[in-house]
Design brief:
This protein has about 900 residues and is mainly alpha-helical. It has 6 domains: about 190 residues, 3-Layer(aba) Sandwich (Rossmann fold); about 180 residues, no CATH class; about 80 residues, no CATH class; about 70 residues; about 110 residues, Serine Threonine Protein Phosphatase 5, Tetratricopeptide repeat, CATH 1.25.40; about 55 residues, Orthogonal Bundle (Arc Repressor Mutant, subunit A), CATH 1.10.10.10. Helices cover about 65% and strands about 5% of the residues. The strands form 2 sheets. It has a 5-stranded parallel sheet, with helices on both faces. It has a 3-stranded antiparallel sheet with strand order 6-8-7. The two termini are about 40 Å apart.
Length: about 900
C-alpha cells in the first residue's frame, strides 16, 4: 500500500525572479571574439558546456555573447535549493516563458498537480512547445554544479535526447554534469569551453589592464602578472583594484607580491581591498556579506540604515566584487563574488560577536518572511541556528506547499536538533512523513527513527484533545507498521483513526478506509472489501492522492481475482503498470501489478508468461528491498517450477528464501509453500513440525493465510488417507468462501473434497463436488486449480468424465486432461475423452468471424459468398460441435483450441 500526501508546488508567482535574471555585463569586460565565435558554433549544436573553477569568467563570457547577439535567451541561476525536481522545472519553464509566454503552460500546470508526474510526462508537452519555435533560442543554466539530483539529471538527459533544433542549452558549471555528456559529445552535438580556453592571454591581459588602471604597464610587468595569475580573470581583477591610485613604486611592489593561490587571495582581499574602504563601507560589507542576493531594502533591514540601495550602487560602480542583476519589479538586485563574500565572512566572524551575527541573520530572515520568500527566510534562520524561528517558518511553508518538497524539508529538519523538534507536534508529524517517504520504508530502522516524533506529537494532541490531528497521526501510524509487515496493527490503527477523523478529511479517511478494506479482504470478506475499497478510491481520488488510488486499484484487482473475474483483474493491473510512473515508490506498485499478472497467467496455465511477470516482480522487490513483495513473488516462482515438473529446483528456491528473509511475519507463508511442495513430492512423513506450527494460535495470522494452510493440511490428510478429517475441514472453509464471495476458494475446496472422496474409492460422491468445481472453473477460466493436484486429479477426471452432465463440461475436462504433463497422465488412457468432428477450412473461417461477433450478412460479405451459404456453414458448425448458440460455440472452440 502506498499513500503519500502531496499538494501542488510553488506557483510561478512565488519564484525568486532574480534567479531568472542574467548578470549585467560590466563595461570593462574584454571582448573575446574567438570564444564568442565558438559559442556561435553552439547554435548548430544541442549543448554548450562551459566548465571551469570560479573566477574564470564563465558567466561574463555567456553574458557578453547574449548581449552581442540577436537571438532570444532565457537564464536560470541555480543553487542547492533547486535539487527538488518540481522547483527546478518550475524555474526552467518560467525562464523559457520570458522567451515566449506560450511555452511550458502544460508542463507548469502538471507541476502544480498534486502528484508529480514522470519526467517523460512532464517534459513531453514542453518539448512539443519548443518544437514550434521558429527562431533559435538559448537557455542558460548557470551554476549547474549545484544540481546533484538524479531525477533532475534523468529529466535533462531526456530533454537533451529530444531537444528541438530551435533550442540550445548552455551549462555554466564548475564540474561536468552528471547526465551522460559523452553521448552528446560522440554525436558532435556539443561545444565545450574549459578553464584552459578561458585563461587570458597576454594581449587580453593588456587590454583588461588598460581599461582597469590609468597607468600603462611595461610588457615585462604584464608578463609577470600573467605568469602569476595563469590568466585567471578574477585574479587580474583583484590586482587591478589594488593598483588603482598607486604610484609607480607601489605598482611594482604589488606586482611582486601578488599570488594566485586561494589562501593568498583571501588575505589579499581583506588587506588590499576591504581595508582600503571607508569605515561605513567596511561596516556595510561585514553586515551584508552573509547573504547570497542583496537589494536595497534587505540591506536597510539588516544594517538598520536607509542608504542600502545607494551603497550597493556605489559598490557596483567601484567594481568592488559585486554584480548587478537585472531589475526585478521595483527592486534592483546584486550579488557578491563568492570568493569575496567568503573572505569578508571570515573577517566578520572575527570582528563581530556571535550575538551580533545572529541578529543580522534574524533581521534578514524577517525581511525574507515579510516579502514571502520563505525558502530564504528558513535558510537564513537555520544558518544562524535560530531553530524556533526556523520551525515557525517551516510550519508556514508546509501550509503553502504541504509535503511536495520532501528533500528540502528533510534537509532543513536534519539541521535542527531532535530535542528542539520534539517540542513542536506539527513539525514532528511532518518530519515523520518526510522520513518515511524519503528513506527505505521497509527497513525496521526507519520505523525506529520515526517513533520518537510520532510519540511526541501523539502525546501533545491527546493532551489537547485535538481529535482531527490525532486521527491523521493514527492513520499514518497504520502506514508505518503496514510497511513493516504488521498488518493487524495497521488495521487497528486505521479503525481507531476513523473514529477520530472528521468527514471532510478525505485524504486521511481514504487512507484509513484503504487499510480497513484490505483487512476485510485479508479476512476473506470479499464483498465487504469491495464496498470499502470503492469508497476509499472515491475519497482518495477527491484528495488527488494518486498513490492511494493506485493502491485501491490493486486491492480491487485482487478482489476480482478471488471472485474469478480474471479479465477484469488483468485490466486493472495493466492500468497500474501504465499509471505507476514517476515516484520511485511506484516501483512497489509495478511489482505488485506484475505479481498479480503472474498469478492470473499461472491460473490460466500460461506458465511462460507467469514466469516472466513473476521474475519482473521479484526484480522490483529486490531493488526496493521490499520483502512483502519478494516473498510472494518467490513463492509464485516456486509454484511455476513445480508446475514444470522441476520439484527439486522449487524446493531449493523456497529453502534459500527462508534463509534470507528478515521479517519473521512472512515465515508462515514460506513454511506453507515448503509443506505444499513436500506433499506434491509424496514426502509427507516429516511434516509434523509444520502441523504443530499452524495448530498454534497466532493472532497475527490473517484469515486468507489460515485458509491457505487449511487447504494444504487437507491435502496432507488426503495423502495420509485421513479423508474424514479432510472433508470436515473443507466443509467449514467451503461454506465460509461461499458466504463471503471467494469463488476461487470455493472451487479449490470442491476439488479437494472430490479428491478426498476419490481417495476413499467413492466415485459417485466425488463426482458431485467435482462437477460443481468444473462448472465454475470452466466459466471463470480456472485451470491450475485442477492441474496443480497432479496425478490424483487426472485419475479422478478420467473416472468421472463419462458421468459429467453436459458436453461443455466433458470438453473442459478433456482439455484439462490434455493439459497435464505426460508424467502425470502416463498411468491412464484417455480413450474416453470427447472427440470433435473435424471442421473444414471454410467452416473454421466462419467460426472465427462468428466468435468475433459478425452477423451472418457481415460474414457473407467478408468471405464473398451468399448469406444462405453462411447459414448452411453455421448449421454444420453447430452440429459438429454439438452446440446451439454462438456462446456455446465460443466456449467449445476455446476449450478444444480449434482456433
Amino acid at each position: 500500500m502506498v499513500t503519500k500526501q502531496t499538494t501542488a508546488p510553488r506557483s510561478p508567482n512565488q519564484l525568486l525572479h532574480t534567479k531568472l535574471m542574467p548578470p549585467r555585463l560590466h563595461s570593462q569586460a574584454v571582448q573575446r571574439e574567438d570564444l564568442l565565435a565558438r559559442l556561435d558554433i553552439g547554435l548548430t549544436r544541442k549543448l554548450i558546456l562551459i566548465t571551469a573553477p570560479t573566477g574564470f569568467g564563465k558567466t561574463t563570457l555567456v553574458s557578453m555573447w547574449i548581449a552581442s547577439r540577436t537571438f532570444a535567451s532565457a537564464w536560470v541561476t541555480l543553487d542547492e535549493n533547486d535539487n527538488d525536481p518540481s522547483r527546478f522545472w518550475t524555474y526552467v519553464c518560467s525562464a523559457l516563458r520570458t522567451v515566449d509566454p506560450s511555452l511550458g503552460k502544460t508542463t507548469l500546470s502538471r507541476l502544480m498537480a498534486a502528484q508529480p508526474p514522470s519526467f517523460e510526462t512532464l517534459l513531453t508537452p514542453l518539448i512539443n512547445d519548443l518544437a514550434r519555435l521558429k527562431e533559435p533560442s538559448v537557455l542558460v543554466l548557470e551554476d549547474y554544479h549545484e544540481i546533484r539530483s538524479s531525477e533532475i539529471n534523468e529529466g535533462l538527459s531526456f530533454l537533451v535526447q529530444h531537444l528541438p533544433e530551435s533550442l540550445h542549452l548552455v551549462f555554466i558549471t564548475r564540474t561536468d554534469p552528471d547526465f551522460p555528456v559523452g553521448i552528446v559529445r560522440a554525436r558532435d552535438e556539443l561545444v565545450e569551453i574549459h578553464a584552459s580556453d578561458l585563461r587570458f592571454d597576454q594581449k587580453e591581459t593588456e587590454i583588461f589592464l588598460q581599461t582597469a588602471i590609468p597607468t600603462a604597464l611595461p610588457s615585462s610587468a604584464i608578463l609577470r602578472l600573467l605568469q602569476k595569475t595563469e590568466g585567471w580573470a578574477a585574479g587580474l581583477r583583484l590586482l587591478a583594484l589594488s593598483l588603482q591610485n598607486k604610484s609607480d613604486a607601489d605598482i611594482e611592489r604589488v606586482i611582486e607580491t601578488f599570488s594566485g593561490s586561494d589562501r593568498y587571495v583571501a588575505d589579499y582581499l581583506i588587506k588590499e581591498v576591504f581595508e582600503g574602504q571607508p569605515e561605513d563601507i567596511q561596516s556595510f560589507l561585514l553586515q551584508t556579506c552573509f547573504f547570497r542576493r542583496l537589494t536595497g531594502s534587505l540591506c536597510d533591514a539588516v544594517t538598520e540604515t536607509r542608504d542600502g540601495a545607494a551603497t550597493l550602487e556605489h559598490l557596483e560602480r567601484d567594481n568592488l566584487f559585486i554584480v548587478q542583476l537585472e531589475r526585478g519589479s521595483d527592486q534592483i538586485w546584486y550579488r557578491y563574488n563568492p570568493l569575496f563574500a567568503e573572505s569578508i565572512q571570515y573577517l566578520a566572524k572575527q570582528r563581530l560577536d556571535e550575538r551580533t551575527v545572529r541578529s543580522l541573520f534574524e533581521k534578514a530572515s524577517g525581511w525574507y518572511e515579510y516579502h514571502g520568500l520563505f525558502d530564504e527566510a528558513i535558510e537564513t534562520a537555520l544558518a544562524a541556528k535560530l531553530f524556533d524561528r526556523a520551525m515557525m517558518l517551516i510550519e508556514k511553508f508546509i501550509e503553502i506547499h504541504d509535503m511536495r518538497e520532501l528533500r528540502t524539508l528533510g534537509r532543513w529538519l536534519e539541521g535542527i536538533p531532535q530535542q528542539e523538534i520534539l517540542l513542536h507536534p506539527a513539525i514532528c508529524f511532518t518530519y515523520a512523513q518526510v522520513i518515511l517517504y524519503s528513506t527505505d520504508r521497509f527497513a525496521p530502522a526507519t520505523a525506529t527513527r520515526i517513533e520518537p516524533f510520532l510519540r511526541a506529537a501523539e502525546t501533545a494532541w491527546r493532551t489537547e484533545e485535538d481529535h482531527p490531528r490525532l486521527g491523521q497521526l493514527l492513520s499514518f501510524r497504520g502506514n508505518v507498521v503496514w510497511w513493516q509487515g504488521d498488518f493487524q496493527k495497521a488495521f487497528d490503527y486505521s479503525r481507531q483513526s476513523l473514529d477520530e477523523l472528521p468527514e471532510h478529511d478525505v485524504f486521511w479517511r481514504g487512507n484509513s478506509l484503504l487499510s480497513v478494506s484490505y483487512e476485510a479482504l485479508s479476512a476473506g470478506r470479499i464483498l465487504e472489501a469491495q464496498d470499502k475499497v470503492l469508497e476509499a478510491r472515491a475519497l482518495l481520488g477527491a484528495a488527488q492522492n494518486i498513490f492511494g488510488v493506485l493502491a485501491a486499484i490493486q486491492f480491487l484487482a485482487e478482489i476480482f481475482y478471488w471472485q474469478g473475474e480474471l479479465e477484469q483483474a488483468e485490466q486493472l493491473n495493466q492500468q497500474i503498470l501504465k499509471e505507476a510512473v514517476g515516484d520511485a515508490s511506484m516501483l512497489d506498485d509495478q511489482g505488485i501489478a506484475n505479481l498479480n499478472l503472474a498469478d492470473i497467467a499461472y491460473e490460466r496455465n500460461d506458465l511462460d508468461q507467469a514466469e516472466q511477470s513473476a521474475i519482473r516482480a521479484l526484480e522490483l522487490a529486490e531493488q526496493r528491498a521490499n520483502e512483502l513483495l519478494q516473498v510472494p513473488a518467490s513463492i509464485r516462482l516456486t509454484s511455476i517450477h513445480a508446475a514444470k515438473n522441476d520439484l527439486s529446483r522449487a524446493r531449493e528456491s523456497v529453502k534459500s528464501l527462508e534463509a534470507k528473509i528478515q521479517n519473521p511475519a512472512l515465515l508462515r507463508d514460506i513454511q506453507n509453500a515448503q509443506a505444499l511442495l513436500s506433499i506434491r513430492a509424496n514426502d509427507t512423513s516429516s511434516l509434523e513440525w509444520w502441523v504443530k506450527i499452524i495448530s498454534t494460535e497466532d493472532q497475527a495470522a490473517l484469515h486468507l493465510q489460515r485458509e491457505r494452510e487449511a487447504f494444504t493440511l487437507a491435502r496432507l490428510r488426503i495423502a495420509e488417507h485421513k479423508t474424514n478429517e479432510a472433508i470436515r475441514l473443507l466443509k467449514q472453509w467451503h461454506e465460509d468462501a461461499a458466504q463471503n464471495g471467494r469463488v476461487r476458494s470455493q472451487v479449490e475446496a470442491l476439488c479437494l473434497e472430490a479428491l478426498a472422496h476419490h481417495a476413499d474409492s467413492n466415485i459417485s460422491q466425488a463426482a458431485q463436488p467435482l462437477s460443481e468445481a468444473l462448472t465454475i472453473g470452466q466459466t471463470k477460466g480456472f485451470r491450475r486449480i485442477f492441474l496443480d493436484e497432479g496425478t490424483r486429479m487426472a485419475a479422478l477426471l478420467q473416472a468421472v468424465l463419462p458421468t459429467l452432465p453436459n458436453r461443455t463440461l466433458k470438453l473442459f475436462a478433456t482439455t484439462l486432461l490434455h493439459s497435464f504433463s505426460p508424467e502425470v497422465t502416463s498411468h491412464s488412457a484417455t480413450s474416453s475423452t470427447v472427440q470433435i468432428e473435424a471442421l473444414s477450412g471454410q467452416e473454421l473461417r466462419v467460426l472465427r468471424l462468428l466468435i468475433a461477433g459478425l452477423s451472418n450478412a457481415d460474414i457473407a460479405q467478408e468471405l464473398v459468398v451468399s448469406t444462405n451459404t453462411i447459414k448452411t456453414h453455421v448449421k454444420s458448425i453447430y452440429r459438429k460441435l454439438n452446440v446451439n448458440s454462438r456462446g456455446e460455440a465460443r466456449q467449445v472452440a476455446r476449450e478444444s483450441k480449434l482456433l
